[in-house]
């Protein structure tokens, strides 16, 4: 029994060139798959975010720590894209916050439109604390006399306007200031 006959067929059924090409292809497929598994970049992972609590008015940066971060990624907080994503290394990046209302938000890393990783309820945006007035000096003013008031308190915003409305008090019939 001949293995290769006069026409170049193996056992009289298969062409020798076709068999060699088939063996090469079957040998290349596992090598290509092994190279893909060995050299592919793993999906990024978000491990933590600092700070994880901010106020509505704060315009700040978040620090992301994780693994396999790259500059080609996009960050979405809730449903709003982050203004900038600055990668320092594969394990650290900074994100500029978009304008967010009070609430709890997920932080998502995207590659194009494909979601790669999500950190659920990662960021809590708290409402801005209200202004508080602790004292007003002087405590009373006489009607019709010019003067100035000093208002003491916390968390005043620039360019506030105070309006004083006289309020009639029947006991001593003096005008007082109400804010």
TrEMBL record:
Pfam family, one: DUF4330
Residue stretches spanning the membrane: 19-39
InterPro entries the record matches: DUF4330, Ig-like_fold, Ig_E-set
Keywords: Membrane, Transmembrane, Transmembrane helix
UniProt-recorded name of the protein: Uncharacterized protein
High-level lineage: unclassified sequences, metagenomes, ecological metagenomes
């Amino acid at each position: 029994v001949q293995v290769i006959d006069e026409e170049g067929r193996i056992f009289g059924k298969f062409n020798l060139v076709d068999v060699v090409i088939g063996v090469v292809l079957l040998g290349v497929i596992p090598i290509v798959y092994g190279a893909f598994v060995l050299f592919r970049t793993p999906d990024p992972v978000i491990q933590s975010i600092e700070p994880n609590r901010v106020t509505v008015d704060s315009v700040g940066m978040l620090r992301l720590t994780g693994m396999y971060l790259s500059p080609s990624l996009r960050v979405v907080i809730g449903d709003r894209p982050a203004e900038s994503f600055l990668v320092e290394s594969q394990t650290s990046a900074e994100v500029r916050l978009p304008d967010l209302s009070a609430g709890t938000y997920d932080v998502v890393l995207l590659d194009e439109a494909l979601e790669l990783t999500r950190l659920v309820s990662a960021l809590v945006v708290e409402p801005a604390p209200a202004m508080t007035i602790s004292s007003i000096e002087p405590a009373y003013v006489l009607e019709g006399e010019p003067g100035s008031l000093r208002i003491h308190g916390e968390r005043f915003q620039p360019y506030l306007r105070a309006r004083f409305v006289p309020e009639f008090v029947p006991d001593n019939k003096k005008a007082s200031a109400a804010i």
